[in-house]
Write a structure and sequence with these properties.
The structure is a single chain. This protein has 15 helices and no strands. It is an all-alpha fold.
Length: about 280
């Protein structure tokens, strides 16, 4: 498995046009470790796989050989075909990632195309070459957020066998904890506010949310089959659980709740509504 991952990693590195030194910097490891991982003499960590996928534009699932089943695949997400488009899509990807950061930190209305172009080191004409306007570019940042969430789940959940541990880790990964996750949540929340006055059918968000819901539901069904989660309608339980995460997450992002309280509230809900109690818990 490590050898096949290394082979795919070498393929995506070659297709990206990035030097190993630059790629190592993007991933956050030294060049020696990267060389060992690319040769198959060292295993990539989950964090490194996520960094490699983000830097080169492929998915973690593709790096793992399209074999992971821990997360539902986002509709339209490039996987095995990604390498053919890496060189051509690099300028576009740079613009999207730059816009994603600016939109998340400053808000859609406050960011101009010229601001994005300047931060990305390209001309405004280059931005307009890839995107008809700011709204289309924002939609691309939403798709980028979906990819980040998908990659993170596959990278960190692939080796977790326990359904309970997998669900707890999945919810942690999808929560607004840490700077990158908070930026993703900023994009989500801005999307929700736009959809309140726009046609949801024209947005990629419903498909992205459906992917997240399907991942949660599959995890719940797995846990129900093994008896670690309470019996019940998995779809209904998924709706309730994701709504709890959404509501608590908004409170964290808007400063109404701190992270320790968020974790405590979510844990209490899981124990009350999802996790099958131990015998001593039932009698207490």
């Amino acid at each position: 498995m490590a050898t096949s991952i290394a082979a795919r990693a070498r393929e995506t590195v070659a297709g990206s046009g990035l030097s190993q030194r630059r790629l190592a910097q993007a991933i956050g490891i030294d060049e020696t470790k990267l060389s060992k991982s690319l040769s198959g003499r060292r295993k990539f960590t989950a964090e490194e796989l996520l960094g490699l996928a983000t830097a080169t534009g492929v998915t973690v699932r593709w790096l793992l050989g399209d074999e992971s089943t821990v997360s539902a695949v986002p509709a339209g997400l490039r996987t095995a075909s990604a390498l053919a488009e890496v060189d051509q899509s690099s300028p576009r990807r740079l613009i999207v990632e730059t816009a994603w950061d600016l939109f998340a930190r400053h808000g859609y209305d406050a960011v101009r195309i010229v601001d994005i172009a300047e931060a990305a080191g390209v001309s405004s004409a280059a931005v307009h070459y890839h995107f008809a306007g700011k709204s289309e570019l924002f939609d691309a940042t939403l798709e980028f957020s979906v990819k980040l969430a998908f990659d993170r789940q596959v990278a960190w959940l692939d080796e977790i066998v326990s359904p309970r541990r997998r669900l707890e880790r999945l919810l942690e990964l999808q929560s607004p904890i840490g700077p990158d996750a908070r930026r993703e949540w900023s994009i989500w929340i801005q999307t929700w506010s736009r959809l309140a006055v726009e046609d949801p059918a024209e947005s990629a968000y419903p498909a992205g949310y459906d992917r997240w819901s399907r991942t949660v539901r599959a995890t719940l069904e797995d846990g129900q089959a093994s008896g670690v989660f309470r019996p019940g309608d998995a779809t209904e339980m998924t709706d309730e659980l994701t709504s709890v995460v959404d509501g608590l997450g908004i409170k964290v992002v808007t400063g109404l709740m701190d992270v320790p309280t968020f974790r405590h509230r979510l844990d209490r809900y899981l124990r009350r509504a999802i996790i099958t109690p131990e015998p001593d818990e039932e009698s207490s």
